[in-house]
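Re: export button greyed out
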Amino acid sequence: MLQIALDAMGADNGVEPVVCGLLQALQNKNFKAYLVGDTALLKSSLDSKRLSSDILQRIELLHADDYVRMEEKASDANKRTTTSIYHAIGLVKSGDASACVSAGHSGATMSLATLQIGRIKGVSRPAICTCMPTITNRCSIILDAGANTDCKPEYLVDFALMGFHYAKHVLHYELPRVGLLSNGEEDSKGNDLTKQTFKLLSEYDFFKGNVEGSDIFNGSVDVIVCDGFMGNLVLKASEGAASSISTILKAEIKKSIISSLGYLLAKTAFKALKKKVDYAEYGGAPLLGIKKPVIISHGKSNARAMECAIYQAIEACDSKICDKITEAFQSIATIK
Amino acid sequence: MLQIALDAMGADNGVEPVVCGLLQALQNKNFKAYLVGDTALLKSSLDSKRLSSDILQRIELLHADDYVRMEEKASDANKRTTTSIYHAIGLVKSGDASACVSAGHSGATMSLATLQIGRIKGVSRPAICTCMPTITNRCSIILDAGANTDCKPEYLVDFALMGFHYAKHVLHYELPRVGLLSNGEEDSKGNDLTKQTFKLLSEYDFFKGNVEGSDIFNGSVDVIVCDGFMGNLVLKASEGAASSISTILKAEIKKSIISSLGYLLAKTAFKALKKKVDYAEYGGAPLLGIKKPVIISHGKSNARAMECAIYQAIEACDSKICDKITEAFQSIATIK
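Workaround output, generated via the alternate export path:
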């Protein structure tokens, strides 16, 4: 049976969303979970719920004395051997678990994943890969969404390759199209980094050229490549735009009884929109380029987001995405 | 009477939005316009409308044989002396007009503004300054919104100074707060460029530290500083997010008669939202750092956007923003 290591500590809203998300996932999928953290806390959370013996049998509590706080430095994570994320990553390293999920300190998770589990040979830098809703019936992925602030062109080429294989093997897109995030669609557009990257990517059939910020949501490509600084900016700006629109619209609706009534009648449509753009439905973000699947979840994840992040971990294992990326980089090395 | 040079050519939808926007502005404000372009086209557009003699007297048509096409290189603009934008900028250079507005090729406008009118002494690079709606009752400005793709830290400091003075003298914000666009709010966050810029900006009282993509819309600062590449990315990503939300919601509403009815009842609220986030209401984007006011409008501008861009030109003249920026950079030079 597939075994997943779940870091239960360090998320914004404590262990409850992690435990609830896990229980929901255990009901729908057949796997075993190592739940790593303060076992007293975790036991009390589990005890407060009615659980079947089948589910209880598939949870193993593992105690960790400590966890990485949000204000701590990621670079210290490897020295802090008593933390929950250190244990959870350790389970993957030893082979006891096949994948790891954490909503704790993302820098610490990245650092430990790289140092303990290790990078796939040939991958210059691991990248955070985030799923985005589009107006079409398939999502797009953007990478790097925040792991590497300053990048070289070769890193972005690696991100493109990893994104292509993720879209192909995990999302099952037949011929994934890859675009390079830039300030215009024309080939000549870009800054120093993207212009150099453009040249390197032009050798690949999957490369469809430059795309703009608005292309993230229109489905014109499947994979959008950028450095982690840009990725962070566009994701947060998009979230900000969406949340501001919602705030302004709500305030305007509240101003009149007729508008409020209209909103109630149209509520099904609003709910459908919310589900489509809700980050929770997309789970976490896989850290691509690591030898084993590691899923980084938002610190503010609710139970549904944790549940979906666990499904991502299972899909990453089932699709053997890490092996596919390893093979892809091996064959490049052979060609070179 | 204030005189504005209006480049009538090269916009996506021809001369009509320019002419209609101008006529509306002439009804509301007392100024004279030089309307530069294909006079046959412009005369026929004006003839098709009923105009009072007061308005007609305040329009002077000036013929230009040619205009810069969107696919042309900005760097060729200075050689093409028969274009409408060359004439319009020339009117400002000669002092016949006090400001220029164009919805044509923005690169050509920037290039001619810099080469013909000239940079303010001490300003390293002119920047495009764009107004953004926020959830508060005042807008925020972001610069550079696209003029300079690769920037040095000193350029960003100049953008901060120009943005501060624009917010103070044109938007009339008492003590404008300036933020640096980065991948996290903590002082330690950033890429090489923003980390170096952070140090330089720390000397200024108006500097409130790093801000994230989502801060563009929440009003936590008034001025957001970034390089033109990032500015372009976050603006287009935000536009994309907003337009996708609208597309998805419309499709969901259409699925049911009850939702459609609800939408009709709530229409006032949707209209108010649309007005608040409509780019047209914010007009164009001033090119700050040039000795005279130059307003760059979206190629797709409608009449309302052109009208608002003309108001921006008038406000730029009335507020003497170029003089204020000149004085600010003079006093820095004196301190140094």
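Chain B touches chain A through 61 residues (CB under 8 Å). The button fix ships in the next patch.
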